[in-house]
Amino acid sequence: MTRVLVLGSGQLGLMMAAAASRLGVQLDRLDPENWTLLRGTSPTPEPLPSDWRGEAYDHVTVEREHFPDRAVLQAFDSHPGFKLANTLHCLADRRRQKSFLDELGIATSEWLTVRDRADLAELQHRVGLGLVLKAATGGYDGRGQWRINDPQPEVPAEAVPGQLIAERVVAFEREVSLVGARNRRGDCVFYPLVENEHRHGMLVCTIAPGELAPGQQAEAEDMLRRIMDALDYVGVMAMECFEESGRLLVNELAPRVHNSGHWTQEGASIDQFEMHVRALANLPLTVPETTRNTAMLNLVGTAFDPAWLDLGKTRLHWYGKEVRPGRKLGHLNVYGATNHALLDNLEALMKRWDPMDPADIQRALDILKRDIGDARGETQHTRPEREQRISN
């Protein structure tokens, strides 16, 4: 039996473990904060000796980019199945990630490293007042990020000079993401581009497949293929993009399974978690087919409700975490054979149950209504005003 170890013990590793069990692959999860092991989908942690290095595992992967300290990754640097050291070094720091994309000639928003207010002023002089300041490492779901619109910009007191980047705020038409996978031979497969909506920097819904401009899928696949090839990456990777004036600008890369790929659990012939395990274990990397139109809705800061299990054309995925405000605790995949059917199912959900801020479901409805109108050749309506996306 092939054995895989995931560094991280959150919901992504748990869903990978469930997918691995269907393939006859043993996948266990390492909790790096407590140095304990969770076997398969078991919730019971096993303490490990301090010198444990997972020698029994064929492959070592991750469910996140950031760890308590570098020692966690260094512990596996000599493991023959851990091939991610270069990828994590390159992508976990936004300064290196942006420089890497620049070297590949892949478009991103204009950016620079920020040491003081003079750097902010320099970028403002080039691109205008609208800037986003981001911590170079850490920070997710909108954390560690600040909007800068002042003509006399200051670095926030809580930010660390030199450990920051600033980017031009992108006036995007939509946010899209692509999930792809690559194996050790360099073969790649891709899911369709999807459209995402965020609130306060956190993903709230994904609509799959997205309504695309001609050639956009091929453009995105070429970009992600070049990125994975340059890193000699194995597994699933997600690429988040802004669409601005018809072109794609890469916002962030995630060298792992990703929130915007959760729709594949109900909407694709092979979900992203199984695809990741296939790539790692050198199993057939079959091209996934879209089986149903799907809307993924994140459940944020809300307690479990058994009524979710009685929703038609909807599948619940609950993570079993402690409930806290602003925390992703699960997601719903709502599906239908067509966009019309999906729209009907979302409207039915909106009427009978409010799982979150109702505006979040409304965002998914707005995307579908626009896409249905576009397919009919109708005039595009203006989307409701919403918060400018910063980062995920």
Distance between the termini: 36 Å
Rg: 21 Å
Q: Describe the biggest sheet?
A: 9 strands, antiparallel
- CATH homolog superfamily of the largest domain: ATP-grasp fold, B domain
Structural class: alpha+beta
Shape: globular
- How large is the share of residues in beta strands? 25-35%
Task: Tell how many strands the DSSP assignment holds.
Answer: 18
Mean of all residue-level pLDDT scores: 90
Number of helices: 10
Number of domains: 3
CATH class of the largest domain: Alpha Beta
What portion of residues is helical? 25-40%
Element-level helix/strand string:
EHEEEEHHHEHEEEEEEEHEEHHEEEHH
Low-confidence regions: 379-392
CATH fold annotation of the largest domain:
D-amino Acid Aminotransferase, Chain A, domain 1
**CATH arch. level architecture of the largest domain:** 2-Layer Sandwich
Plain-language structure description:
With 392 residues, the protein is of the alpha+beta class. It has three domains: 80 residues, 3-Layer(aba) Sandwich (Rossmann fold); 59 residues, Dna Ligase, domain 1 (2-Layer Sandwich); 202 residues, 2-Layer Sandwich (D-amino Acid Aminotransferase, Chain A, domain 1), CATH 3.30.470. Helix content is 27%, strand content 26%. It has ten helices and 18 strands. Strands 10, 11, 12, 13, 14, 15, 16, 17 and 18 form a nine-stranded antiparallel beta sheet that branches. The protein has a five-stranded mixed beta sheet with strand order 4-3-2-1-5, covered by helices on one side. A four-stranded antiparallel beta sheet has the order 6-9-7-8, sandwiched between helices. A hairpin with a 7-residue loop joins strand 3 and strand 4. Helix 1 packs across helix 8 and helix 9 runs antiparallel to helix 10. 41% of the residues are buried.
